[in-house]
Amino acid sequence: MDQAKQLVTEQRTFFYTGQTKNIDYRINALQQLRKGIEKYQQRIQDALRADLNKSEAEAYGSEIRIVLGELDFALEHLQEWAAPKQVPTNSAMPDGVSTIYPEPYGVALIIAPWNYPFQLAFGPLIGAIAAGNCAVIKPSELTPAVSRLTYDLIQEIFPQEYIAVIEGEVEASTALLKEKFDYIFFTGSTGVGRIVMKAAAEHLTPVTLELGGKSPAIVHNDADLKLVAQRIVRGKFLNAGQTCVAPDYLLVHEQVHDELIDMIGAEIKDKFGDDVLQNADFPHIVNARNFDRLSKFLTDGKTLIGGRFVREQLIIEPTVLGDVNWESPVMQEEIFGPILPVFTYSDLNPMLDEIVRRPKPLALYLFTQDEQLQDQVLNQVSFGGGCINDTLSHMTSHYLPFGGVGESGMGSYHGQQSFDVFSHHKSVLKRSE
Ligand code: NAD
């Protein structure tokens, strides 16, 4: 029997013992996970430095802290989430009592990407454990140091019939996807999302797909430009732009364009130093293939800021491009790097039409104090989630389910939603006779 088949069989057998359904078992598992992460913290930071050149502060702030926050929130609320919920019964059945019982699906598969390789493997795992499932994690092969520590950490704290890690390239995913899982949670590109969903369809396995896309940021003429510059620079250049919810491109009111570009330039210097290519803590591009894909975009417009790169170190400095159009190559795919194309507008309506015609974005950011405009954009444009007068921060809230829509994904997680997404909600109507 091959490794994937054997593992799924072992996990399913273990799941049927019923142990993972016990709430104390789940709480203990989450506590073990917390201890394991604390013990491995330095190794996690070292691995993120080795794979992506993330600084210790960035590794902690954008990966470890988020996972620990989700863990603590789950530990605090698990009893309440897992409790059966009574709901009203139709008046035609006065003797009926209606109850919804959350129950685990069984054996879950979690496939993770490379850009936040720790957070995006362990974040979903918290939901899978909290809901009472067994789980197999497949980390990304493009971040080998994090992949190895994920294996070591999980192997140290959990028996493999409960939680296991299978490392490897596409073949490892393909072999896993042939097996029948009870839930698949995939984070990655839209193209691979399609492959995952097709494979899941063979077994009628439900899926969550956390995908990517081109997320616009809109800056209106009444916005506080200093704050906009700070928040755009943080959101765009964190992890060198390799963030699924990074603002992909900017739409700026023509009256404030020049001032905003100056402020973005000043903010980049303030945050990353006068010469980002010399900044030892600026993350690099994950590999040469992505570097070459990105560096081609640098000629798709006029360089307003940055534009330099060092291929040997896989670094591209934060770059802002003007004079782009909707047909430019840089506007045909998710950029996923430190390059920010900027459009100007005098009338936002044609820009909104353009966004609506394109695949639904994972995120949208709008900077304005004008509440009518806020309502208009929220009404008119469908997107996964986003912020008004900020970037990224919607994904750090335990109370906002995080996910995409259309080509940017389906399903969501974080906070209670992570528990719910890995649970079947069993509805039962009980009559007294
Ligand atoms: P990817 O789709 O190339 O890979 C993701 C995972 O799928 C990896 O573990 C990989 O080994 C596996 N995989 C790759 N090809 C496969 C195939 N043919 N069959 C089965 N499995 C396969 O994505 P990536 O490059 O690692 O990540 C970048 C993408 O992920 C971007 O589009 C980004 O926007 C998206 N993303 C989305 C979120 C989100 O939360 N919505 C978060 C992070 C990244």
TrEMBL record:
Active-site residues annotated for this sequence: 210
Keyword DNA-binding assigned: no
PROSITE patterns xref list: ALDEHYDE_DEHYDR_CYS, ALDEHYDE_DEHYDR_GLU
Superkingdom of origin organism: Bacteria
Annotated Aldehyde dehydrogenase domain residues: 19-428
Alphabetic keyword roster: Oxidoreductase
InterPro entries: Ald_DH/histidinol_DH, Ald_DH_C, Ald_DH_CS_CYS, Ald_DH_CS_GLU, Ald_DH_N, Aldehyde_DH_dom, Aldehyde_DH_NAD(P)
GO molecular function: aldehyde dehydrogenase (NAD+) activity
Entries under Pfam families matching the protein: Aldedh
Family: Belongs to the aldehyde dehydrogenase family.
Record protein name field: Aldehyde dehydrogenase
Organism field: Paenibacillus xylanexedens
